[in-house]
## 1
Amino acid sequence: MRINDDLSRPVIVHAGRQDWVPSPAAGVDRRMLFRIGDEVARATSIVRYAPGSAFPRHTHGGGEEIVVLDGVFQDEHGDYPAGSYFRNPPGTSHVPASRDGCTIFVRLWQFRNGDDVQIVRQPGKGRKITPRPGAAAATVLFEDSNEEVRLEDWTAGADVTVENGRGLEFLVLAGGLRIGDERLEPQSWGRLPAGTHFAASVGPSGARIWMKDGPLLHPDVCRLPGP
């Protein structure tokens, strides 16, 4: 299966308008944003856990990166309420579940070889930095020499420009904005190749944005199993 696999082209997906697609685990559904592969895939998705649902124990061969969008996501290591962010590097394993139901944003098989940094950021945690023009607050959730992951709050009615020298991926968590003729809302996801201009007009309720600045696919990304 291949979904939005041409990384040379800008893409915006309004996931909140998509139908849910069942996963192999009962009560766990998803909205697919990017995918290369079948059930084991290089993938970016919105995943919904019904109350009491769980996914079987699995090992992250290519790493996993998660933002909890609503509810409380859980595994045997702890509880992660809405606003939590974490990275499970290659080789880690867990049993993901949700007692009361939740929705998460998840990126799979997109870690670099040798990237073994494991991070759990509970809501509000991270390194506070000076926000860019048009933003009220900015928090760095993860940063190394290859990429930077931020959470930003953008001011209602502001115009925001983001430099794009390496590539950008973003998800609207709350509020809304416009990029050109596209009106983005919660669960709108976008990806822009390096050098593609990013300029947004923020809506009247402001916006909260998750954003990754880095190559859209690292040259040394973990290899998927198979021939």
Note: The mean pLDDT is 95.
## 2
Amino acid sequence: MLKGVYQATKKDGSIYYRASITTMGKHISLGSFSTEKKAHHAYLEAERLYRRGDIDPLNLRSHLKYLSFEKGIILLNHRDYKTYFKTPIYLRSGYFSYFLDGFGELKFDNDDLFYYSSHRILLHDGHLYVNDYGMQYGILARYGIKNFAVAGKDYTFANGDPMDYRYSNIIVINKYHGVTYNDKREVPCHEARIHINGEYLIGRFSTDAEAAVAYNKAVDAATEAGIPKNFIQNYVLEYTPKEYADVYTSINLPFKYISYLNSISS
């Protein structure tokens, strides 16, 4: 066998080749290949990455033919910081980068290093998510941003960089379903709206929590009226159960909305 290569057998009995490299006290798998020659070239590329300090994440792609880009990032980080991660993380000063092939460089605070070193970020239809305990979770959920949130409306990036997921860069505008912050009025407020065959304004409130309760009450009324829609309810953290009940009771749904529901149920 060529250096860095060993032969393996699939369940169906067919032969393939695996490449690996042992360096800096770490034995690292480089991937599977259809031929011994390709596996050996992958080994040589890995060896070159460790030897050449001028290769960095920005010019890495031009030095790869057999290794995956993500594997190359992993090796560069191990070379430069003596730390091996199974995910394509490259450490920076005060933060780290996660390189997602075909998408770009994502930036995260070091507080998230342990999580993303053990959870691979995946991309589907433009959405970034991880698999955790058999479930798919959007990476925005770590900031309290819901799956239905819209960039620019419900959250925004302070420095304008949508690839920068450091906590100081994430500004949550609307964290509850059916609630929108309106700063165009003389007195800015949080508006609760529900969409049922058209949009109904439920009310304007000084806090997003109160608006979220109002939306929930509107949902309850729609459900009681027999509207067959799978509404999303808000889980409001700001209130104790008693406080929630008091706010819920104090909210009066608008006459126009109640009239519409009565016309549906009658």
Note: Helices lie at 36-51, 69-81, 113-118, 208-224, 241-250, 255-265.
## 3
Amino acid sequence: MSIETPEELEALRAAGRVVAEAIRAMRADVRVGVSTRELDEVGARVFARYRARSGPQLDYGFPGTTCISVNDEAVHGIPGKRRLRDGDLVKLDVTAELDGFYADACASVPVGNVSAECRRLARASRHALHRGMQAAHAGAAINEIGRAVEATVDSYGYSVCRDLAGHGIGRRIHEAPNVPSFRHPAFGQPLTAGLVITIEPIITAGRGEVRESGDGWTLRTRDGSCAAHFEHTIVITDAAPVVLTA
């Protein structure tokens, strides 16, 4: 969506605050032995406190409040009985709907004694997100976000998952435009002030290809390599973007 009134901006800020609080609460509970369902319940309690609803459930019938993916699971992991182990990398992907407005963010969180390589992968995704946000201003091409993200990921020696992308958001989880994490000739259209998008570098230590896992939701890396994912919902301006989910 493109914001047209101060009221719309404030409504989106409110949704973004719910997302940020849910991720903070879930992150604080990440530890060896906790189940992904228990982490999902932490997020659900934050949602209930603000009378927010799960975007994935509303729009797609997802079988959880949040998406929780571990290690080679890149995105859309279903919360369940799986218990986190020492050395895991867990992705907490949270989308909230509040009063008809959506916000979306993700953080990759190490569990216990994570390998140096896995921590570096997470750092690369977070760094790429910030570089992508720096490129996101009115008048810049969507391509410039992808160029900045991919260049950062390449500098670490990792790969972008090209089948997965950021997107417009606001009244639904997924709206136009797509926001790839790599430079693509089809995305030369300029960003406009007020546009609400997500930037979300989903990257791997391997080749970046993903496959369906068989549960109808979870996408894994095809080569079994670890994946990392950071994301924010932002509003495009003539200068630095407004980050709604910080």
Note: The radius of gyration is 17 Å.
